[in-house]
Amino acid sequence: AETWDSVPLAPPDSIFKLTAAYKEDTFPQKINLGVGAYRDDDNKPWVLPVVKKVTDMLLHDPALEHEYLPITGLPEFTAAAARLMFGADSPALAEGRVTSVQTISGTGANHLGALFLSKFYGWYEGKEVYLSDPTWVNHFAIFRNVGVEPRTYPYYDANTIGLAFSAFIETLQTAPPRSVFLLHACAHNPTGVDPTREQWSQIADVILAKGHYTFFDCAYQGFASGDLEGDAWAVREFVRRNVPMLVCQSFAKNAGLYGERVGALHVVAPSASAATRVKTQLSVLQRSEISNPPAHGARLMALILNNPELFEEWKRDIRTMAGRIIAMRQELHGLLTDKYKTPGNWDHIVNQIGMFSFTGIRAEQSQALTEKAHIYLTTNGRISMAGLNSHNIEYFAESLDKVVR
Ligand code: PMP
Questions:
Q1: What residues have CB less than 8 Å from 380, skipping those under 6 apart?
Q2: Ranges for the Aminotransferase class I/classII large domain (predicted)?
Q3: Catalytic (active site) residue 205
Q4: pLDDT tier at 14 (50, 70, 90 boundaries)?
Q5: E strands within 87-127?
Q6: What is the DSSP string of 301-316?
Q7: Is the dihedral of CA 284, 289, 294, 297 positive or negative?
Q8: How far apart are CA 167 and CA 152, in angstroms?
Q9: What is the mean pLDDT of residues 207-231?
Q10: Distance between CA 17 and CA 30 in Å, rounded?
Q11: How far apart are CA 106 and CA 192, in angstroms?
């Protein structure tokens, strides 16, 4: 037998498969709504002007060298990233209770957080994590890889195309004490459905009462609403209420730094000494996995976050992206309800938040969109709003109207 005879062929990643099919399609009006990256109104990737500017600054910096970063990352990046997440005036930061480590974007933060919990968290029974149903599919593999078994909690209600709030609360109440719950901090992927502030408070009540641990995944701060502060509200509220937690932070979407892999893991500890101990262990784990995080993206973000003028420019760029997405939501909603008088209620298109929208269409309808109209989307009916623009939105609305009639 040959060495790798027992290795089965793995299926291709479904999103990448979708993109490949889209690329091969020669139909001129084809649309790709699978992609999870921002596109401008001409369907082109967008380099944020502020990112262009700081890239230029770095290139012309005579002091630039290529030494290793510290194991836990560039300190001026991790400190600024923490202030962005928790607020510059956060008491937890002032008390030294937050430990922050630079990671390989949000994916790496999820991995390091999961690995840390797997090694050190005091589970009541087996090592399990509760994920929202549905969630970013990668969450399942990330936790399984470190020996933590994923379970799910009800999140999305297909009947209301909204939050399955009472079923969610019930799972929080019936899960074993000290369970780990992964919560999307804002702009839930894939549904675009977030709890209201009142609902977040009730979620925090039960989490505190049951002694659960919150694993926040925050991949869309600022990108969701255009407001960095507003999108961090749930995280900050949980910190204020002393919910035991960690936060995974990504700059892929809000800075358009997909390929730079710049992110951070923040563990909010009950005391400064606990935070220090946690940091030493995160450092040991990080050492064995990547030794040192990559420098370029962290330097770019450190420049932006630590310079008030550049920070303002970044906020403008974020509003450009979020504003275009929100405008597409409104236009699509208007086309379906006013122009085509498409059967059903489409208010969820404007009520959902972030890059993705769950349209609520069935699998066979989304398949029909692909087969008849050359519009590519995942079969769960999720569309990336970033794939819509002023040139293709009419065609999309018209095609959607046809398949739901
Ligand atoms: N978490 C969620 C919920 C996401 O949607 C994503 C991006 N698709 C990530 C984490 C991680 O992305 P990245 O590793 O590119 O930061």
A1: 134, 190, 358, 363, 366
A2: 29-400
A3: no
A4: confident
A5: 98-104
A6: HHHHHH-HHHHHHHHH
A7: negative
A8: 12
A9: 97
A10: 16
A11: 18
